[in-house]
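Work Package 3 (structural annotation) set out to generate three-dimensional models for the target panel prioritized at the project kickoff. During this period the team completed the workflow that converts sequence records into discrete structure tokens, so that structures can be stored uniformly alongside our sequence database. As a representative example, we reproduce one entry of 249 residues exactly as it appears in the project archive.
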Amino acid sequence: MIKIDRTIKPAELTDDLKTQLTNKYKTDGTSVWNHELLKVPLLHMSHKKCCYCECNIAEESKYMEVEHFYPKDIYPDLVVDWANLLPACKRCNTNKSNHDPNQSKIINPCQDNPRTHIGMKLYRLKGKDEIGSNTIDVIYLNEIERLVYPRFQIGTEVQESIEDILEKTKEYYEGKSVSTRRKNRIVNGLKKIMEEGRPQKEYSAVVASVILNDNNFNYCKDLLINLSLWDDELIQLESVLSNNSLDIL
């Protein structure tokens, strides 16, 4: 889970339309939130990922649902309130169900920074406080087959890629292979790995955490700094990853 920046309310969602849709829901329970004018901007707001588990909800095998942070059954006046809507996968939305954050607080990805409340240990999310623990339990964010195993897979792939880049970097540093081509492959290869921890990528919080806490990555970084190859783009990527990463507990 990462922090999501709430975009401005869609222009089409005028106050009059909001009132009409809210009244219709209160009258007959129509799924008034199931509109493209809401779903499309929500999907783009989260980089086409579930706001909770970070799975890609733009894939054919998955399905985006409009999640009401404050449940519509309890707070019907917020049924199409833009500040109350989030994009979620069907599983996370179902797991959260009618949980009332006013009764038991959980993370709102558009208001809270998840890394304040959640860390990671062995690819399982761990609560750093009651809010984090509540969030993990309510949304079931440690489902083994659906979430923990994919995190492990992508984390292992990232570590293997870093190890490969480190070997090339050591050879370059020791003067065994110092061609411009080799230098570019090292720098661009590391950038490609780090880009997988950007907010647009699936499971970016896990990837960013794995990269920044990997000893081989930090060794590689030190070598590149000594070679004056740690450029502005790498510095920027590291900053982005730092904002996305979770503490390893």
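The chain has ten helices and five strands.
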